[in-house]
From TrEMBL:
InterPro entries: PhoX (IPR008557), TAT_signal (IPR006311). It holds the Pfam family PhoX. Transmembrane segments: none annotated. It comes from the Bacteria. This is dTDP-glucose 4,6-dehydratase. SUPFAM superfamilies: Calcium-dependent phosphotriesterase. It comes from Insolitispirillum peregrinum.
Length: 592
């Protein structure tokens, strides 16, 4: 449980007022600077960005759309440098009507051309870009040898682990079942202790057209939400995006993908041992015995929280020795009991109900249909498990549960205690063994507690729970991503979607202590521009820069009539999803 005291300094910044504006806002005494935006050139000799002239080939050489996860990877590799490194950034999805002129809302997907579809495919995936901090702040290093786009359109990834090469991963274009073109809907992610990136493939269902009924994968696709209701127009042009023609293609997405950002020629690896679902994140922690635990959520209402523990042990200072660690180990799913215990239920073929009788002929079937396997084991359906992070100071694990307005009163349980949960909550898990590095994230059971129940604490019917001193500006809604500073203080990014306009509450960054007298006293630090969401909070090792992702500014409006033109505010430029660097004006640590 939480400690009564903490050595972490108080969060001394003066919090922002809740107001939605066309520009970003940060607490007084801090500076928020745009580092890289959609369309920025990643290689030398390229023209300035003109969205009206964008081609698929160009997009593959420029920063992608809707940046989400940010990993700061110091240069040189293995150092703790805080003024030079690689930004490894996910590009989750595209907003068709904001990328192209003349398209509107719902019909945009039916109106785009094949070339525009290819631009969208190229704008998905990941960017690795070298950045340096100078006297004018952070800047991209143009034409760095590290700069690289990984896209859905063209980057060949390799499947590894139990589902690699399995019949259910084979397609006409790839009879090997191992060579997968692209990575898709890259949401949050994580960094491994050996200096690679994990990128989480999340809402992969929304891209696939065609009726899955009558295909051998019908039940599987239904569970993943693939039901001939695509939100993109790609299925009109590409056979692989139509499940009636290529029923196995979706089985090649929904994985955690490992990328080595320090080797620009490396092949991204889809680590199938960690299961297939709508992965939100992949947070690693080294255990006292050297094995590595990866936490990952499945972001959908009533889906589950997962953990993977490697079989092998982490070898410090030897990157190569660790590169296959994520291919062997045990995937487990969480069951939360009312007595405050969380049990990790192993998803192992042949054990319990995970047998051929139930449609699991091998571990490949178990990982491909991890959701169905988890349900059979009695895992607890959660209120949309998004980011999961371990606190480097107290060793506890924090789970962001965004919301779940579909939970009915009879479906309430101790760990998901509110029906019609419109605001979300944060759980705190305590592994046995001790604090910090002593915590044993391989144990079969942990204890769990509630850090906070989000929403407006002044409205009794909301049922919010925080520190009693939380202000009208400091309460939050829809916790999505998070990170910790070096003092173990929690920084939360929120994503209310369209609710922020309705509530008049902007998304942004909220910070809180998790131990001591100010536990769960959240304070509002940064606000996104209109109709954006906040993703990717990431500190440099010195805690003096906080990188954040401004995703989909202007969502819900159009290229020709956007609700904001952040960050350039020029009449001929639409809003641009951007990575922002927040620093303290006096050069000190973020948060005080
Ligand atoms: Fe892509 Fe669950 O956020
Ligand atoms: Ca998210
Ligand atoms: Ca995070
Ligand atoms: Ca989100």
């Amino acid at each position: 449980a939480a400690k009564a005291e903490t050595s972490a300094p108080a969060l001394s910044f003066q919090e922002l007022a809740k107001s939605i504006t066309e520009d970003q806002q940060v607490a007084a005494g801090y500076k928020a600077q745009v580092v890289v935006s959609w369309g920025d050139a990643l290689h030398g000799g390229m023209d300035a960005f003109d969205p009206l002239l964008l081609t698929p080939a160009e997009q593959e050489r420029r920063f992608g759309y809707n940046n989400d996860f940010i990993g700061f990877m110091p240069l040189p590799v293995g150092s703790q440098a805080s003024d030079h490194g690689l930004l490894c950034v996910n590009h989750e999805y595209t907003n068709t009507e904001l990328m192209f002129s003349g398209l509107k809302g719902e019909s945009a997907k039916d109106l785009i051309s094949e070339d525009q579809a290819k631009v969208e495919m190229a704008a998905h995936g990941h960017t690795i870009v070298e950045v340096k901090k100078g006297k004018d702040g952070w800047a991209v290093v143009a034409d760095s040898r590290y700069n690289r786009r990984i896209s859905f359109l063209s980057t060949v990834c390799e499947a590894t682990g139990p589902a690699a090469g399995h019949a259910r991963l084979k397609t006409k274009a790839d009879p090997s079942g191992r060579k997968i073109v692209g990575t898709l809907n890259n949401c949050a992610g994580g960094k491994t202790p050996w200096g690679t990136i994990l990128t989480a493939e999340e809402n992969i269902h929304q891209y696939f057209a065609g009726n899955p009924e009558g295909t051998p994968e019908a039940r599987n696709h239904k569970r993943m939400g693939i039901e001939n209701k695509p939100e993109y127009g790609w299925g009109r042009f590409f056979e692989r995006m139509d499940v009636s023609k290529e029923p196995n293609e979706p089985n090649r997405f929904g994985w955690l993908v490992e990328i080595d950002p320090y080797d620009p020629s490396s092949t991204p690896k889809k680590r199938t041992a960690l299961g297939r679902f709508k992965h939100e994140a992949g947070t690693c922690v080294v255990n006292p015995d050297g094995r590595v635990t990866v936490y990952t959520g499945d972001d959908e209402r009533f889906e589950y929280l997962y953990r993977f523990v490697t079989k092998g042990k982490f070898v410090p200072n030897d990157r190569k020795a660790n590169m296959g660690l994520l291919d062997e180990g045990t995937l487990s799913v969480a069951r939360f009991d009312a007595n405050g215990t969380v049990s990790w239920l192993p998803l192992i073929h042949g054990k319990g109900k995970l047998t051929a009788e139930n449609g699991f002929a091998s571990q490949a079937d178990v990982v491909i249909e991890a959701r169905r396997a988890s349900e059979l084991l009695g895992a607890t359906p959660m209120d949309r498990p998004e980011d999961v992070e371990t606190n480097p100071v107290n060793g506890r694990v924090y789970v962001m549960l965004t919301n779940n307005t579909k939970r009915k009163p009879e479906q309430v349980d101790a760990a998901n205690p509110r029906a019609n949960n419109a605001y979300g909550h944060i759980l705190e898990l305590t592994a046995p063994g001790g604090e910090g590095k002593a915590a044993n994230h391989t144990a079969d059971t942990y204890q769990w507690d509630i850090l906070l129940l989000a929403g407006d604490p002044s409205k009794p019917d909301v049922g919010a729970r925080y520190h009693p001193d939380v202000t009208s500006n400091g309460w939050l809604a829809a916790p999505d991503n998070c990170t910790f500073d070096n003092h173990g203080r929690l920084w939360i990014a929120t994503d209310q979607g369209g609710d922020q306009a309705k509530r008049g509450v902007p998304d942004g960054i909220y910070a809180t202590q998790v131990d001591g007298a100010q536990r769960a006293l959240t304070k509002f630090f940064y606000a996104v521009p209109r109709d954006a969401e906040m993703c990717g909070p990431e500190f440099t090792p010195d805690g003096k820069t906080l990188f954040v992702s401004v995703q989909h500014p202007g969502e819900g409006s159009t290229y020709d009539k956007p609700s904001t033109r952040f960050p350039r505010f020029k009449a001929d430029m639409p809003p641009l999803p951007s990575v922002v660097a927040i620093t303290k004006k006096d050069g000190g640590e973020i948060g005080g």
